[in-house]
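Many introductory courses stop at the sequence. We go one step further.
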Amino acid sequence: MNKKEFLKVVKENHFFDQHSKVLIAVSGGKDSLNLFHLLFDLQEKLGIELGMIHVNHQQRPESQEEEDYLYNLARELHIPFFVDYFTGKFSEDSARQFRYDFFKSVMESELYTALVTAHHADDQAETIFMRIIRGNRLRNLRGIEPVQPFGTGQLIRPLLSFRKADLEEVFHFEDSSNVSLDYFRNRVRNHYMPLLEEENTQFSTALVNLGNETYQYLAALKDLTKDIQTTKLEEFLAQTPAVRSFLLQEYLEKFSDLQPTRAQFQEILHILEEKKNYNHFLKNNYYLMKNEKEFSITKIIPKADEEISNLMIESEGIYEFGNFLIGVGRPLESFHQIIYVKKEFPIILRHRQAGDRILLNGISKKLRRYFIDEKIPHKNRQEAVLIEQNKNVYGIANIVASDLSKSMKNDTINVALYIKMKV
């Protein structure tokens, strides 16, 4: 592969049409250094400004030598260089998460709109085969996307149409860990793939073709169903079971950190097909909300840790604070209490403060005195969550609703807060 071939692919796919500042992830291996030199030489033609980013995983003696080489290369070519050091217990997944978190943070702080990685066609074949072994859904056999949203911009992989054998010989480092069979990808690359290529010399190409065909079929189904409003139950239930399954899978793609198992997927589908009104906790802080006309999946936002003293709510949704889940205008399954407030926002969730008062039975009472009179346990007093609006306390979660809340019960301009203790 020469620069002309690479440039042709880049321009045909419009990889950098929307970008001027491009960050390239460089490990020190042959793939990423090839990509770096190609993009560096073509900066002017592509109208981009490059930055180099590297993670030192600190797992091999040569890691520091690789970092030093990349640092000096970037300095020599007047390219910004960003580096971070992996910490914690090492695994393929933890290292990958660390890298991508670091890449996102630099993109945001340094105003890069594209991250470029050197994944190529061999990586694509390995990824598809790994997903087959893991039993992934058909839609995941699309393999690696050449362009996808990432951080504050896009993640771009311009080498996916090239094999590793197509790359030029450039100075690079060989990662000794690439031969270790301790890692799944290495077992696939160094053991399973060569064995299967003895049966079919085009096995890698066949896997890539499978990924491309899968992508085409899914894209066609998406085009054919684009006018169906999936969350409208009348439309959703009017489809065949096969189409309903596809539509639900497409909808769930919006929630990248939900990742339901096959059994959980079938449970969601059953709820949509059989139950009229249902609120169901899924996993990873997600709730399925369903009434007779429509459904939605909502994430509990945000998860407040113990250091957060208050939470301002400015819209309907499901929130987590202290030991409670609070559905603002969203009923929760098996809720313990309802507190009514005005529809105007914001609403404040907070812990008690000195001087707090609550209106009960026509009397404004100090919260401290109320707790004493009602013999509320000390632990409950310390963990009490107050619902405040316009500097008035409308209630204490799972303890009492104030007169202000009770007066709003039948008011058409109220919003209900459904309160539930976390298990």
